[in-house]
Amino acid sequence: MKQLTANIILLLVLTATVLSACSDDETYAEKKEKERDAIASFINRDVALMYDGDTALYVGKINVISEDQFQAQDSTTNLERNEYVLFGNNGVYMQIVRKGVGEKLQSGQSKRVIARYLEFNILADSIQTRNDILYYSTTPDIIDITNSYGTFTASFNIDNGGGAMYRTYNSTSVPSGWLVPFTYINIGRQIYEDDEISKVRLIVPHSQGHSLANQYVYPCFYEITFQQMRD
User: pLDDT tens digits for the chain (231 residues)?
Assistant: First the structure.
């Protein structure tokens, strides 16, 4: 409960930071321009994400590649060059750290997936929420996802009370940006010691984010692992 309360307080502080950076008469177009500038700055600087005074994740300077180059590389991003592919239709940037064990979610197929993540508010320059820490080890975010002819739909399953995303934003809606990787990654479980589940890093603009990001027009960076839940 203490950790949950701390998360809510942090969220309120970060939201206030975002709001204080926006004047009352700022137009939506101006907010979007501020968001684009924040993303550009994030991409071009040597980023390390800090949490409680320590480095939680080193992002580095990002090398953006086109969808054509991404496809030519067999839908992979080169980690040595710290590549992220930019999808022009939604503005999401994606790095595939690991495609993972298992198989892709096929059309007409549904799965229940465990998602562990770190969320960084790019505009506020701070980690906003995460469930990859010990407090949430028994209550991760669980996603029910379906592939319908290449279109993915998903919701957070809250039978266990929900994870950090649901508890923070009080919504079962999975951000659209989170669904982009499912076209390219595998969903499976770690069975053998050298098996690795899928992992991605995303830059998600407000239009593809959760309700608060959408409302206040700010982008988020995510590192997420996806693992098929045991039947």
Answer: 445 544 554 565 465 555 545 555 789 999 999 999 999 999 999 999 988 889 999 999 999 999 999 999 999 999 999 999 999 999 999 999 999 999 999 999 999 999 999 999 999 999 999 999 888 888 899 999 999 999 999 999 999 899 999 999 999 999 999 999 999 999 999 888 888 999 999 999 999 999 999 999 999 999 999 999 987
Q: How far apart are CA 196 and CA 183, in angstroms?
A: 18
The string of DSSP codes covering 111-167 is EEEEEEEEEEETTTTEEEEESSSGGGTTS-EEEEEEEETTEEEEEEE-TTS--HHHH
Interior/surface letters 169-189, b for 16+ CB within 10 angstroms, e for the rest: beeeebbbbbbbbbebbbbbe
**In the chain, count of helices (H) and strands (E)?**
6, 11
- Cα–Cα distance, 178 to 14 (Å, whole number): 21
Query: CB-based contacts of 36: which residues, under 8 Å, 6+ apart?
Result: none
Architecture of domain 2-228: Roll (3.10)
Residue 168, by phi and psi: left (phi above 0), alpha (psi -120 to 50) or beta? alpha
Q: Which two tokens stand for residue 119?
A: 């969320």
- Model pTM greater than 0.85? yes
Q: Which amino acid is at 86?
A: L
Kindly list the domain boundaries of the chain, sorted by start residue.
2-228
